Amino acid sequence: MPEHLNPLGQPIGLPLPGWTARPRPPGTAMTGVHCRLEPLDAARHAEALFEANGRDRDGRNWTYLAVGPFGEFAAYRDWVASVAKSQDPLFFAIVARAGERAVGVASYLRIDPAIGSIEVGNINYSPLAQRTPIASEAMFLMMRRVFDELGYRRYEWKCDSLNAPSRRAALRYGFRYEGLFRQATIYKGRNRDTIWFAMLDREWPYLKRAYERWLAPDNFTPDGQQKMALGELTIAALVDCDRGAAAILEAGSPGAATP
Question: Which candidate, 254, 120, 154, 144, places its Cα nearest to that of 207?
Answer without folding.
Answer: 144
